[in-house]
Amino acid sequence: MKYLILIPDGAGDEEIAMLGNKTPLQAANLEHMDRLARIGLVGLVRTIPPGIAPGSDAANLSVMGYDPAVYHTGRSPLEAASMGIRMSDTDVAFRTNLVTLAGDGSYEDLTIQDHAAGDITSEEAKVLMEYMDEQFGTAQLRFYPGVSFRHAMIVKDGSTDYDLTPPHDVLTQRVGDHLPKGSGSEFITAMMKKSYELLSVHPINKERERKGLNPANSIWIWGQGRKPNLSSFFDKYGIKGTAISAVDLIKGIALCAGLSSVDVEGATGTIHTNFDGKAQAAIEEYQRGQDFVYLHLEAPDECSHQGDLEGKIKSLELIDQLVLKPILDYFSSCGEAFKVLIVPDHRTPIAIRTHSAAPVPFVLYDSDHEAEPDRERTFDEAAGKKGRFFENGFELADYFFAE
């Protein structure tokens, strides 16, 4: 038996008037996802437990079979693990975004224009983050470059008792209303303010502005946490697997769970990612003997954060055609039984441009146990409401991997 969990990140949404009160999943042409829905199980699953922020960290832990209420220790330590950063039990990791701030006046009066700094390249970002480390790094505090706008700060013997806001939650809002809070958080605010002075005049950002691109003119620090301690995925399910994602967070969860992780050339985490390469990488993992692939596509989520409705629909169609179809063709050519679970980690409604804790739709297909065909059954939120409901996201993984 081969297993595929396909994550169209942030695909879940709400009804949108300009789509005739359809959601992006309903508006998109999803030939292969809907075909699996017609002969599979559809429903809704709550991936975000009550009391936990609707972040990709908790959501993907949940989808992979780990109860966030037990295993969630913060986003950044998972990302740090994927970057090869070795943390002690007393270290604290912080996610560090390169962002674009806009406006005039004091730092507090600027607005958060872009949480991703125009999807800055990893090469440009590496130079900027190494510069930040030169400016702020000490024996107790270091910055580490990651992928595109996503980076890490590690503080030795640090505290997690701060109130820090994800930048994608407060786009277009005033910076001063969302600065770090909590005892001792002043050092974070001071670095963020100083970074704006330094990065605004950096040659990389001057060149980006000349090209009409958003500058990475400030760091934004959030997502703090300590070293995670996930139980072994193989011990849980008796299955060998690989995660494929352009996002450090997903790689970190995989590595902490004892799964493999594969990097795909040209995988960006945006709609311009290498969809074909991701599908081929998944097939190659099965060919080399892996039982399971956790295939994560960030593009729908990034389009949602940017308020790009057309891009969100297009990204879903690209995933359906360029990723799901070739993998299904491969499964069919092998003649081996297989299961496919397609589920967004969370909703990212276009209307709010950030994550929501509302349940997400899923489709689960088992080649050994096809459901009675139903032409009306599709992969979307409305169809999910008529199907099976999982109150706890990690229970869906248990059900999926059960014999």
Report on the architecture of this protein.
With 403 residues, this protein is α/β, with parallel strands linked by helices. The chain has two domains: 2-72 and 230-401, Alkaline Phosphatase, subunit A; 92-225, no CATH class. The chain is built from 15 helices and 13 strands. Helix 5 (75-82) packs across helix 10 and helix 12 runs antiparallel to helix 13. The longest helix is centred in the C-terminal third of the chain and has 26 residues, at 309-334. It is globular.
The CATH superfamily name of the largest domain is Alkaline Phosphatase, subunit A
Low-confidence stretches: none
Side-by-side strand order of the widest sheet? 9-8-10-1-11-12-2-13
**Whole-number total of structural domains:** 2
The CATH first-level class of the largest domain comes to Alpha Beta
Looking at the structure, the CATH topology of the largest domain is Alkaline Phosphatase, subunit A
| Number of helices, counting only DSSP H or I runs of 4 residues or more | 15
Task: Note the beta-strand portion.
Answer: 15-25%
Secondary-structure element string: EHHEHHHEEHEEHHEHEHEHEHHEEHEH
The main β sheet shows up as: 8 strands, mixed
Average pLDDT score:
96
Second rung of CATH, namely the architecture of the largest domain: 3-Layer(aba) Sandwich
Mass-distribution shape = globular
- Per DSSP E runs of 2 or more residues, the count of β-strands stands at 13
Structural class: alpha/beta
Regarding quaternary structure, what we see is: single chain
How widely separated are the two ends? 10 Å
- Rounded to the nearest angstrom, the radius of gyration is 21 Å
- Helix % is 25-40%
